[in-house]
Design goal:
The chain has ten helices and 19 strands. It is α+β, with helices and mostly antiparallel strands and 363 residues long. Helix 2 runs parallel beside helix 4 and helix 3 packs across helix 4.
């Protein structure tokens, strides 16, 4: 396998710049996920690595080789697409072997690689079937197998699970993570699904409007988002945000003055000299247990429940403070109804602060 290095990459489509000064190193054997909303440039970046799009500026290295002018077939990469791209007139074995036959590998080597990949993916019994005889999950395994048999330096995956149902997506996420461990592969994976990004990537690259917003391990992105966009994109439900006034006496006032949080000494020092900040609270950090609320009077809230969404293991509770909409993610035992009064609190160390103008996280 090999590292991938993108150096000051730019990509324009006419007058529209879709990737902007992107510099990123993907280490050998690393699983890196490019994540962001539609139109953020993540798929274009993947296609630039593959050679399916030509860079407007910058350099792309695979291993130690500059590949800007290298044809896709000569870059030693394998792609797995959203739509599987299987040949309908070929059976599974022929689909998986097709690329190897084009490279004129000996028949015995083709047989060995295809069967080894089929065994690893649990599809040996499907080798004689055609794509139309397979389920969506089976077709996705065949598409993965076709990439695996090539033994490339880098795997490029463009939303490969988006056509699967929820249960299959969970199964295939685990399958891909296992394959990564077994193959010790370098994988660049594109998705708009932050759950996929958080559960599979060694590191995630959060993009917006062609610009990288943050690159870090999933937990680090969740715990320490670089800005408001990342904080709102990573996490489900999204983080709650308020514009809060920094008042004298180490307090924040928000929601039209109806809510008032006490700050720790360290937080007060960090926010000294500021009149306003953006306050962020993750739904799962809002807690309603009586003992917890009693222990944290400095961050206690009282609100009226508007909507309750029971989800089995947890309950989403929607409420408002002076017109500001909030969501709390509570335990399944939270038996609440619309119209009830709810007391909540958050541990002060779980609060997030962002600059009002730049929206960047404050230290």
């Amino acid at each position: 396998m090999a590292r991938v290095y993108l150096e000051h990459i730019e990509k324009n489509f006419g007058s529209t710049r879709v990737v902007k000064d992107l510099t990123l190193e993907i280490k050998d054997e690393e699983f890196v996920v490019l994540v962001g909303p539609s139109g953020c440039g993540k798929t274009t970046t993947l296609r630039l690595i593959a050679g399916l799009e030509e860079v407007t500026a910058g350099r792309i290295y695979i291993g130690d080789r500059l590949v800007n002018d290298v044809a896709p077939k000569d870059r030693d990469i394998a792609m797995v697409f959203q739509n599987y791209a299987l040949y309908p007139h070929m059976n599974v074995f022929e689909n998986m072997a097709f690329g190897l036959k084009l490279r004129r590998l000996p028949r015995a080597e083709v047989e060995r690689r295809v069967r080894a990949a089929a065994e690893r993916l649990g599809i040996v019994h499907l080798l004689s079937r055609r794509p139309r005889e397979l389920s969506g999950g089976q077709r996705q395994r065949v598409a993965l197998g076709r990439a695996v048999v090539r033994q490339p330096q880098v795997f490029l995956m463009d939303e490969p699970l988006s056509n699967l149902d929820a249960r299959l997506r969970v199964d295939m996420r685990a399958e891909l993570a296992r394959l990564h461990r077994e193959l010790k592969a370098t994988i660049v994976y594109v998705t708009h699904d932050q759950v996929e990004a958080m559960t599979m990537g060694d590191r995630i690259v959060v993009m917006k409007d062609g610009v990288v917003q943050q690159v870090a391990a999933p937990r680090a992105v969740y715990e320490h988002p670089a800005n408001v966009f990342v904080a709102g994109f990573i996490g489900s439900p999204p983080m709650n945000f308020f514009t809060a006034a920094v008042t004298s006496g180490r307090h924040l006032a928000f929601a039209g003055g109806r809510a008032r949080f006490g700050l720790t000494e360290a937080q007060a020092t960090a926010l000294a000299g500021r009149e306003q900040v953006i306050l962020g609270i993750r739904p799962e950090d809002l807690r309603a247990e009586v003992d917890f609320v009693t222990a944290h009077p400095e961050t206690a809230l009282e609100a009226t429940v508007e909507v309750v969404e029971p989800l089995g293991a947890e309950t989403l509770v929607h409420f408002s403070l002076d017109g500001a909409q909030l969501v709390a993610r509570l335990g399944a035992a939270a038996a609440l109804r619309a119209g009830e009064r709810l007391h909540l609190a958050v541990a002060p160390e779980r609060l997030h602060f962002f600059d009002v103008e730049t929206e960047k996280a404050l230290p």
